[in-house]
């Protein structure tokens, strides 16, 4: 098999020597394409000796063979290991200012990347957004692994072991189970940082009954709220999860890990959260609460025989629960609200700032929702606004990743 191994400028480049040796040992024709920076870590002679093929980095070398596209065209598999944050950003943008860039654009072969960088760089919203683009485009991701990093820190960011990368890449080409996209283990820096805190999370969507069989509801699945509850539990908090209409499979992971209360209507949610908040240090209102409820709930089904050809419903406003909690908050209690918006313009931020002030919450998590965004999906994209109205954090990725970003913001916002 014709395998291109892209090597970019990270210390883990030395481990890629083993990856190339393994591929050669298994009889593959391996062509190493290092970036200029990668050669500062492992020199060109090493790559040539080990791969037994000519190695170049620039599109201006070996021009007669049209090398800048021929490597990509001939490849059956492309592996980029280590893939630095910079290279992943270049790949997401489709930049081609060196031989690796042109090769990646010219190939139709499966592409496997093994990210390697410092934890903060991995968690940065820009890197996470780039990873999302690459995954959507079919790039397979191996790692990063969790463990000690250069400089003494630990966390997700280590390049996966060469054998793991080779196993995943070769399985992919053989058409076996696609290379898994491992979720990085939780950041150990967050380990126990919520210990001793009692937190309440509301999740899901309320339903306001019209009659015994119908209700006014919304599309909230509760996934973000459940992710928030689990992230807090993982980080050491004592968690109460108040769940409104969350499917069994979504809530299953939280069972046994949090105190669970289930509610139906906004009024029931208000009672449950007010009760739980009386002893809580943090309240996160992730539930989608109905703003209005029917003025009357019919005791029997509203049949067409009774309602005729036109049905006018009268709705009355529900109390703003989170505003009520904030007005009566315990000293030192941190309150977080969510705002689901259907526009992404500047007006969204202005509206979010007004909402934070109106409800007097410490943090407002704004996410854009729509028919295909935010609801019922595995991923989310949010901005977090603090009391000053500043966007203190942005997060994009899995709902767990967003949950951790919210708790990070809570840790910063908590009074000392
Ligand atoms: O005003 P809006 O509905 O956009 O605010 C959303 C936030 O307020 C969410 O945190 C939600 O849980 C909360 N909310 C509430 N009571 C309501 C409506 C929304 O606490 N009646």
CATH architecture of the largest domain: 3-Layer(aba) Sandwich
Topology-level CATH name of the largest domain: Rossmann fold
Task: Count up the domains.
Answer: 2
Distance between the termini: 59 Å
Q: Outline, from the CA principal axes?
A: elongated
Largest sheet data: 8 strands, mixed
Unreliable stretches, pLDDT < 50, 5 or more residues?
177-185
If you average the pLDDT, what whole number results? 90
Classified by CATH, the class of the largest domain is: Alpha Beta
Total helical elements: 15
Strand order of the largest sheet: 12-11-8-13-16-17-18-19
Strand proportion, as a percent range, falls in 15-25%
Rg over alpha carbons: 26 Å
Question: Would you report the number of β strands?
Answer: 19
How is this structure best described in words?
34% of the residues lie in helices and 24% in strands. The chain is α/β, with parallel strands linked by helices. The protein has 2 domains: 172 residues, Flavin prenyltransferase-like (Rossmann fold, 3-Layer(aba) Sandwich), CATH 3.40.50.1950; 226 residues, CoaB-like (Rossmann fold), CATH 3.40.50. The strands form 5 sheets. An 8-stranded mixed beta sheet has the order 12-11-8-13-16-17-18-19, sandwiched between helices. Strand 16, helix 14 and strand 17 form a beta-alpha-beta unit. Helix 1 runs parallel beside helix 2, helix 4 packs across helix 7 and helix 9 crosses helix 15. The chain is elongated and about 80 Å long. About 2% of the residues have low confidence. It binds cytidine-5'-monophosphate (C5P). The site of cytidine-5'-monophosphate has 13 residues, from helix 13 and strand 16.
């Amino acid at each position: 098999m014709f395998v291109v191994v892209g090597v970019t400028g990270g210390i883990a480049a030395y481990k890629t020597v083993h990856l190339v040796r393994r591929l050669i040992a298994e009889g593959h024709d391996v062509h190493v394409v290092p970036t200029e920076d990668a050669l500062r870590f492992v020199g060109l002679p090493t790559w040539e000796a080990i791969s037994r093929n000519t190695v170049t980095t620039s599109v201006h070398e070996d021009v007669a063979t049209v090398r800048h596209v021929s490597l990509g065209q001939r490849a059956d598999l492309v592996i980029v290991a280590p893939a630095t944050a910079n290279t992943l950003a270049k790949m997401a943008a489709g930049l081609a200012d060196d031989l690796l860039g042109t090769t990646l654009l010219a190939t139709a072969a499966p592409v496997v990347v093994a990210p390697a960088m410092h934890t903060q760089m991995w968690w940065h919203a820009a890197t996470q957004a780039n990873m999302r683009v690459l995954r959507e485009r079919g790039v397979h991701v191996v790692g990063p692994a969790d463990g000690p990093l250069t400089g003494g820190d630990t966390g997700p960011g280590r390049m996966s072991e060469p054998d793991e990368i080779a196993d995943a890449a070769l399985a992919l080409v053989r058409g076996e189970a696609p290379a898994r996209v491992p979720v990085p283990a939780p950041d150990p820096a967050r380990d126990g940082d919520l210990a001793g805190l009692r937190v309440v999370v509301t999740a899901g969507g309320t339903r306001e009954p019209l009659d015994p069989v119908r209700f006014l509801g919304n599309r909230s699945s509760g996934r973000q709220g459940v992710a928030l509850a689990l992230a807090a539990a993982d980080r050491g908090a004592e968690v109460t999860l108040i769940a409104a209409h969350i499917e069994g499979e979504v809530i299953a992971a939280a069972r046994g890990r949090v105190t669970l209360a289930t509610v139906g209507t906004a009024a029931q949610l208000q009672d449950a959260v007010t009760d739980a908040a009386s002893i809580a240090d943090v309240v996160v209102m992730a539930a989608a609460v109905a703003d209005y409820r029917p003025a009357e709930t019919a005791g029997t089904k509203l049949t067409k025989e009774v309602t005729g050809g036109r049905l006018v419903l009268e709705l009355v406003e529900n109390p703003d629960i989170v505003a009520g909690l904030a007005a009566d908050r315990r000293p030192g209690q941190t309150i977080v609200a969510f705002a689901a918006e259907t526009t992404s313009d500047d007006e969204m931020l202005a509206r979010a700032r007004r909402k934070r002030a109106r409800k007097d919450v410490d943090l407002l998590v704004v996410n854009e929702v729509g028919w295909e965004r935010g609801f019922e999906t595995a991923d989310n994209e949010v901005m977090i606004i603090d009391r000053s109205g500043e966007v203190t954090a942005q997060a994009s990725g899995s709902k767990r990743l967003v949950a951790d970003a919210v708790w990070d913001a809570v840790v910063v916002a908590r009074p000392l």
